[in-house]
Amino acid sequence: MSYTVDFRDCEDAARALVGGKCASLGGLLRAGFAVPPGFAVTTRAYDEFLTQTGLRELVRARQGAVTATDLRGAEAIGAELRGALDAAPVPPRIAEAISIAYAALSPGAPATVAVRSSATTEDLEDASFAGQQESYLGVRGTTGVVAAVRRCWASLFTPQALVYRAHMGLADVEPRMSVGVQEMVDARVAGVTFTLNPVNGDRSKIAVEVCWGLAQGLVNGEITPDRYLVDKVTLGILERSIASQDVEHRLDATRGEVVGAPVPAERREAACLTDEDVIEIARLAKRLERAQGRPLDIEWAVGPGPRVADAVRFVQARPETVWSRRAPVPIVPPLASPLDYIHLIACGELIARAEDA
Amino acid sequence: MPPHTMSEGRTDRFHSPFELTAPPGAEGWERMYPYYYLFSEDRRHLDEGKFWFLESMYNPAPMDPFDAIMAEAWWVAQNAFSTRVWRLPHGLGIDHRVLNGYLYVGPTLLTDRAALAACAVDFRRRAGHYYDHWDEIYEEWTTKARACIEELRAIQVRDLPAVEDERVVTERRGIASSYDLVAAYRSLVDNNTRMAYHHFELLTLGYVALYTFQELCRAAFPGIQDLTVARMVAGINVLLLRPDDEVRALAKLAVELGVADLFAEGVAPGDVLAALEATPEGLRWIEALTKAREPWFWYCTGSGASHKNRAWNDDLSVPFGNVREYARKLQAGQSIDRPVDEVLAERERLTAEYRALLPTDSDRRAFDALGDLARMVVPFVENHNFFVEHWHRATLWNKMREFGEIFVAHGFLADAEDVFLMNRWEVEQALFELTAGWATGMPARGRAFWPGEIQARKGILDALRRWSAPPALGTPPVTVKDPFIVMLWGVTHERILNWLGRTHDETASTVVRGAGASAGVAEGDARVVETFEALASVCDGEILVCPIAAPSWAPVFTRVRAAVSDIGGIMSHAAVVAREYGVPAVVGTGFGTRVIKTGQRLRVNGNDGTVTILS
Known about the structure:
The complex is a heterodimer of chains A (357) and B (615). With 357 residues, chain A is of the alpha+beta class. Chain A has helices at residues 15-30, 43-53, 55-63, 71-87, 92-105, 142-154, 159-167, 216-219, 265-268, 275-292, 308-311, 338-346, and strands at 4-6, 38-41, 112-119, 135-140, 177-183, 189-194, 205-212, 226-231, 237-241, 247-252, 257-262, 296-302, 312-319. In chain A, 36% of the residues lie in helices and 22% in strands. In chain A, α4 runs antiparallel to α6 (142-154) and α4 packs across α7 (159-167). In chain B, a hairpin with a 2-residue loop joins β2 (94-99) and β3.
């Protein structure tokens, strides 16, 4: 068993080792979708780290004391545990494995990567840990990558993660962490796509949100994106609203970091993508959903290049969890014959799903 | 103008019909139509509270007085079926009024819950009987329709002899031919009335099924486009397109036989036929024409609602022109076939994909049942049109022309066509009086009265044609549930609000909205066409803007880049034709022909129903 696994080798069957996020990306890669190259730092690496640093006992001792309602307590315990993990040395064999895998991403010049957490209870279909653990963007160089991996491990013990696990009745279960290290896309346009309408769960729709530059502002709510609602079957755009954007996040390749910059005047009010490109993004999302067999929450970015269809990269693809786990709500009650439905509809007693705002 | 006006300052209502006066030169127009068809003070309160829209699909222009018989016939027949036969729970049918010669129609809502409940029981049983035996009933219907058309064709219209034939005496007939003449006219009217009832016998239930399926789709897939729903129930091998198919086949034959060049522009049909008769190949072509034209060339150039919509059989220059166009395309190496296989494949793909997105098994059962019902009725909904509004209609207008000739012979009219300027009651009176004049040998009063009256009416109708008829009147309805109003005319709540916005500010925006009826986006120069005659002015690559496109305008669809209409829903005939030809189309804009000018650059988006005026 290894400390790192290339995305191409990450499988659903090995979720416990590589985490849901990386397993999902592996599936997409093998299905032929364009995913930026990367590797998972496995839960085995995390386990070894805890064992060799002797921190496992500390973790066990402290986390049982967290309750769902005691935020102060969680803050104190969290600070202690994070401080301890951040200060502990990463075992040399683990650091070496990370170094080799990182170098392989970009032979020659060191790649600028995103380092993202994937707790093994994260991304499972019955719980959404989205936003609970950390991601680090614009990381470059082996030292930076190793440190970022360790910080991700430590983010298992943020107050919100501790409280959340307590709330889900998992306070006594040891969380395990896999970390994804992925080459970043120098995105001129990026966004998020849901393969259902996130407002009402309507599965016949694809919702696309787009912004200039990297998607991080969109994901954390700082940026109001352009929004589209696309019919999944016809791929027709049913609704659109174009937003104004003043600041965009871009990857500064020379410095290896993410910087904010003002959006030039001519782009501020403009739509980030043409209708044709939006439809192409929706079409790809539909194929992804088919490949994974369930509704998805997809983060994507468009790199340099003239054609969006060629330049789009799938950065993350998570199972959608809010609507997918609800029991399906029938559109019509079960009636005996078409005439019963005719009567029902004639009398206007059929209540449509709540409309998108 | 009355001192208090209903809509003064209000932006939530359309104009009251009582506030709109006759345009100059049209004073006295009311006398051309029966008293019951007009807005009147005794019904003012009721009528102002109702919603009326301009029925511009069949009647985009002021109705010629006789032609109004068609509207009157369906006024009774359609509603009798809706309210007294089927007892539809959707509402109490569609009422009519004429204003400045234009036909306005509007829904009558059914709000009484007890009445609704009572309807439901009857509706289930009666509609159920028809849906259960649909195919068989449709076949019987076709036999009935053909018999009705044949009965009409067989009516004898004979002028009165100076001296009655002696056989009246020797055969002891006991009746003079003056009786036969009036009886012939009454038979024509009865025949037309009967056909109007046949029209709605199955059609109403057809629209109910389509409406129900569409509403289910809208509830299951909010925002789904009407066009998408229509594609899921699309009819294959639509009879309405058969005449056009026959013309294509004749065009192919002409090219094969090497006679296509005889169909040159500007050559009269008689001369084309003479040239064809001179060669064996030509004779073979004529043989094919003879087979095709009965009944398929009983196809009107417009909707069939006006006597001016001549049939192809009456004017071969129309189908011959189409032959020329198709032949030219063929000779240029282009295909003229319609993509029938694609329509079916698309129908199946869409249906399967949407079905898979439904939440529960019982939803899928409902979707299957209602979809199957809709697909079962669509052939009738699309095909009946040929029998009722083309073949029967063209036969009736021609039969009326025979009465016109008799009026001319007796000095009532200067021209047989003028008979259409008398309304249906006046024709019977005039004809009766004509027989009195014949019987007494004294000059009938009609000879002094009608010629001048006809002239006056022509002037009035010209003035009425110049009036800009608003798309709607009265009070917008709370809800629109009548299956015809939604599916055929495409008048939905959304469309009404759109019109309301534009009513109070015509320059509101450079975007005119309607329903996307045929997919695709196209840009081009607008050509506003209000009559069939003006069609010839449409150039290649232009965008057709019209009140409504008739199905017989099919060849125009091979020339234009897109089509925009004022009225019409997804199931309107023009929408069906546009889809069959793959031409982007937006229907039901309400204001298209008023706001758009010929020569303006347009972008037509048949996917989302918007027409943007670019220049």
